[in-house]
Write a structure and sequence with these properties.
The complex is a heterodimer of chains A (145) and B (71). With 145 residues, chain A is mainly beta. Chain A is 6% helix and 32% strand. Chain A is built from two helices and eleven strands; from the N terminus they run ββββββαβββββα. In chain A, strands 3, 4, 5, 6, 7, 8, 9, 10 and 11 form a nine-stranded antiparallel sheet that branches. In chain A, strands 1-2 form a two-stranded antiparallel sheet. In chain A, strand 7 and strand 8 form a beta hairpin. Chain B has 71 residues and is α+β, with helices and mostly antiparallel strands. In chain B, 30% of the residues lie in helices and 28% in strands. Chain B contains two helices and three strands; from the N terminus they run E-E-E-H-H. A three-stranded antiparallel sheet of chain B has the order 1-2-3, with no helix packed on it. Chain B is elongated and about 55 Å long. The termini of chain B are far apart. In chain B, 11% of the residues are buried. Classes of the chains: A mainly beta (145), B alpha+beta (71). The interface between A and B is medium-sized, with 37 and 26 residues.
Chain lengths: 145, 71
C-alpha cells in the first residue's frame, strides 16, 4: 500500500511488515502501528526511521547502537518482553531513539529506553532498561570512529 | 484524585490485583513496596515522564539528512 511518510513523502510499504506497539510509544500513546524504514543512503546499516502508519507527521530517527557501542547491553525486565509474544533469541532487535538538533554535533541517543522489536510477532515496545544508561547520550563523536 | 492516609505496614489494593505497601516512612521520603502481576510494568513516574519528554523532543528533531550531510 501507499503510505505518506514524514521524511520520504509517499512511498510503497508492505502492510505485512507493520509493527504493532500495543501501548504506543510514551508521549504518543495513540499511535499503535509503525513501520521500520531503512535509510537507503546509509551503507553501514546504522540509521533507521520508525514511521507511524496512522500519523504521517510522527517519525523517530533510530540508531543501531551496537554498531557504535559494541558493549551496549540493556537489561530489560522479562515481564516486559513477554508483552512482545514468543521469540527465539535472534528475533529480538533493539534500536535507540535519536534527538537530532540543528547542531548535529549535539545529537543524543536514548540508551535508557530502547525500542525493542520482536521480528517473530512484529510487536514492538519501548522498554525502560534497568541499567544506569543515559537518556541523552551524546554519540556524535562515536560515529566518526 | 483519591487521597488515602496509610501507616507504615499498611497497604492499598488497586484493581484487585495491585497492592501498594508502605514499607517505611522517613521524613519526606516514603518507601513503597509494590506487588503486581508480572504483566503490569511498574515505573517511577518521573522516569516514565522523562521518556515521554525525550520522545516528544525526538519526534520534532528526527532529520537524519543533517547527520548524513555532515559525513
Amino acid at each position: 500500500m501507499k503510505l505518506n511518510t514524514k521524511h520520504f513523502g509517499e512511498i510503497e510499504v508492505d502492510e505485512n511488515k507493520f509493527i504493532n506497539f500495543e501501548d504506543g510509544i510514551p508521549g504518543f500513546e495513540n499511535s499503535r502501528r509503525f513501520i521500520l524504514l531503512k535509510d537507503d543512503k546509509d551503507k553501514d546499516d546504522l540509521f533507521y526511521w520508525i514511521q507511524s502508519v496512522d500519523d504521517t507527521e510522527l517519525a523517530f530517527a533510530l540508531i543501531d547502537m551496537l554498531k557504535v557501542m559494541p558493549d551496549y547491553d540493556p537489561m530489560v525486565p522479562v515481564e516486559e518482553l513477554s508483552a512482545l509474544g514468543e521469540f527465539e533469541n535472534d528475533d529480538l532487535v533493539n534500536y535507540n531513539i535519536l534527538v537530532i538538533p540543528q547542531d548535529v554535533k549535539e545529537m543524543t541517543a536514548n540508551l535508557l529506553a530502547p525500542i525493542v522489536i520482536n521480528n517473530a510477532t512484529l510487536k514492538g515496545k519501548q522498554i525502560i532498561s534497568t541499567n544506569d544508561y543515559e537518556v541523552k547520550c551524546k554519540i556524535f563523536d562515536m560515529l566518526k570512529k | 484524585m483519591l487521597a488515602l492516609t496509610r501507616k507504615k505496614g499498611e497497604s492499598i489494593i488497586i484493581n484487585d490485583n495491585v497492592e501498594v505497601v508502605v514499607i517505611a516512612v522517613n521524613g519526606d521520603q516514603v518507601k513503597l513496596g509494590i506487588v503486581a502481576p508480572k504483566n503490569i510494568p511498574v515505573h517511577r513516574k518521573e522516569v516514565y515522564e522523562l521518556i515521554q519528554k525525550e520522545n516528544m523532543e525526538a519526534a520534532f528533531n528526527s532529520n537524519l539528512d543533517a547527520v548524513r550531510s555532515n559525513d
